[in-house]
Structure formats: C-alpha cells, structure tokens
Amino acid sequence: MTSSMESTTILWILCNNAKGIYTCAGCSQIFCPRDSIDHRNELNVQLEEVAVAHDLVQQTLNQQTKDPQQHLLIKKINQWEKKSIDMIRQTAERARNELLIGATQHTTQMKQKLQMLSNELRQGREKDDFSEIDLQQWTKKLEELKKELINPTTICYQHLHCSSG
Questions:
Q1: How many CB atoms are closer than 10 A to CB 12?
Q2: Could you tell me the residue ranges of all domains in the chain?
Q3: What's the pTM?
Q4: What is the pLDDT of residues 62-106, one digit of tens each?
Q5: Pairing relation of β-strands 22-23 and 30-31?
Q6: 68-to-59, 61, 72, 81 alpha-carbon distances in Å
Q7: What number of other Cβ atoms are within 10 A of residue 32's Cβ?
C-alpha cells in the first residue's frame, strides 16, 4: 500500500515539495504550507496595488465633483477654444494687414483722381475756358469720387465682402 501512495504523491507548484496540501480557491494551484504563506503575501501585495489604484480613481472623482472645470474633457474643450481663438486672431490680423494695403492703394488712387480733377478745375478757372458741359462732367466726376471714397469698389477682402468697380 505504501508503494501506491508514493506513486500518487503530488509535487507542489513553487518548491516541488510533497509535504502538506493547500489548494488556493482563486487560482486552483496546490501549495505546501510555506509556499501558501508566500502566495498569500503575494496576493496581499496585489490587493494593496488595487487599493492604491482605487484611491487614485476616488481622488480623481472627488476632484471632478469638487471642481468640474478640472474634468479632462472640459480641459480639452478649453484648449480647443484657446487654439481656435488664437487662429481667429491670427486670421483677423492678416485680413487687417491685407485690407490696410488695399486701403493704402485705394487712397493713392483716389488722391490721383482728385488731383486730376483739381487740375482740370484750376485750368478751367485760369483760362476762363469752360462750359455747362464741363461743369456737369466735373460735378459727375466729383460725385463718383465721393461715392468711391465712402464705399470703395476697388478693395476686396475674402470671406467677408468683395466689391468690384
């Protein structure tokens, strides 16, 4: 009978020792008394890691409850908003600069046209050589210059408005 007992002896998982039988209900492995203590200590270490992870989650939840603005998605929205506003500001600045360039060119053209009209008026006065037709043409040119000054038709800015003359 002893020989059949020896042939059914089980070697334990950690130490290959055949003394004592402890079966872990969680992992179904069999341990000797010493190894069962080590296994239990390992489980306690794992439990502590889970508890620490739990505490971090609890702390994050408490922070979000206390200050919802600290939620990760709120922070992402805030970053998106800031980035969008920065892009809009940069685009607006470029548009202003381009508009200033166009406005400067427009002003230069208006000055030239007004100077030409001034020359015509001066020559008409100096030579006393003008008629009703000249007065009508000069008045018409002056009205056109006023309209162009108030509502420029040669300045174009994309996305907002574009006039052509």
A1: 20
A2: 1-70, 71-165
A3: 0.48
A4: 988 898 888 889 999 999 999 999 999 999 999 999 989 988 999
A5: antiparallel
A6: 13, 10, 9, 17
A7: 20
